[in-house]
Amino acid sequence: MSGVEDPGYYILEEEEEEETNVKYEIKEASEKLENNEAEDNSDEDFKQAGDETEEPFADDTQIKIQWQSGFQRKYSVTHDLGRGRFSVVKRCQNLRHGQEVAAKFVRRGRQDQKETEAEFLLLRRLRHPSFTRSYALYTATPKFDILVMELVMGLPLLDWVFTREETTEAECAVLVVQVINALQYLHSCHVVHLDLKPENLLIDILRTSNNSDSCDIIKDEVQPAIRLVDLGSARHLMSPTQLANNTDVSSSASGDFFSKSDPNASDNDTSLLRVPSNQLPALFGTPEFMAPEMLGRNDVGVQADCWNVGVLIYVLVSGRSPFLGTSNEATCKNILSGDVRYPVEHFASVTQEACDLTRDLLVQKPTDRPNLQDILTHPWFNMNECESILPIQSLADFSFRRSKLASSMQEIPLTSAMPATSH
């Protein structure tokens, strides 16, 4: 990971300039590809997606990585769906048969092509209704790669909350249960998400399911369905044996980055699995959802996702970020301090159960955090008569601030040597 030795952090490009450059280069890619003569084999994108086994977690050896060209001859781009640190996601339509997809335009200078291949493989392998399917990979220009995925007709979690007259903590808990179930599935596949935050959670309006190739509509319309998106930071978990032997599942640059773990390791005890520190994703953007072991660049396990769940619940019930400081460095120090506060002005109407659960999850030592199965037995998930309402205005302020930072390429400082400070 380039630049990690430097304890400082840098703004690589201003947000406004970045947005202009991305739009210009996508337009440039479109014009360039429209002049190419390429055979339209866009149907193959979806045929390939249907050729894989329907096992709960498909084998990489059954999936072929094939980079294609001529994206703009096969798809029309309609509008932006969202943007992140390395990419812009756009809604597109297949020109031959009209199927709509989501196309993730990835800036190659920001994310290595092998990492995009790894995300493609992971999405193709997963068989769970909370994760989207990947269809194809395209090369756009020397600067952009394109990952074509299933289109989710939905809203970001907080935007969905804003469309409702009110949302209770009990209704919020129903959504968090879905998030936890999705993470449990991911962990059972020996993969850890590492980037759980409100922007990466979508409410699927049509309740589509990728359990089958037809992407059926789920008939139960009572409960909203949640999708976990952007698995670009997800990493393969290694067994203690692999770690001890320094087995090389080296990085996303490896073709078998998401290959199965040590066959002798227990599939049921994912708490022992780890991502080696040299394989962790680069730290860019804002650190407020990151676990302390991520910031310290230590080996990381599934407990990091449990920490993320704790931050997510804290934000949803209070509209506040538990560790936000005046700078990235201050936020990192707050995370490492282990001091979680519940100011009365923001928690007066929050249930004690929510406070207790987040306090259990936001502990410094990873092994002291409850596992996901134990989390689901907490009383917060059984408050059917709860009347505590999510704070819409505070959440709106939180969402507005986060949207301004969505494209941030500010590198987060290394914090392994940072002293803990109160906040």
Automatic annotation (TrEMBL):
SMART domains reported for this sequence: S_TKc
Biased composition (Basic and acidic residues): 20-35
Domain Protein kinase: residue ranges: 75-381
Gene3D superfamilies in the cross-refs: Phosphorylase Kinase, domain 1, Transferase(Phosphotransferase) domain 1
GO terms (BP aspect): intracellular signal transduction; positive regulation of apoptotic process
Cell inner membrane as UniProt keyword: no
Keywords carried by this UniProt record: ATP-binding, Kinase, Nucleotide-binding, Serine/threonine-protein kinase, Transferase
Ranges for region Disordered: 1-59, 245-270
GO cellular component entries: nucleus
A Pfam family assignment: Pkinase
Gene Ontology MF, one: ATP binding
Keyword Cell inner membrane: no
Compositionally biased region (Low complexity): 250-262
Binding positions for ATP per the UniProt entry: 104
Similarity comment: Belongs to the protein kinase superfamily.
Name the UniProt record assigns to this protein: Triple functional domain protein-like 2
Gene: trio-L2
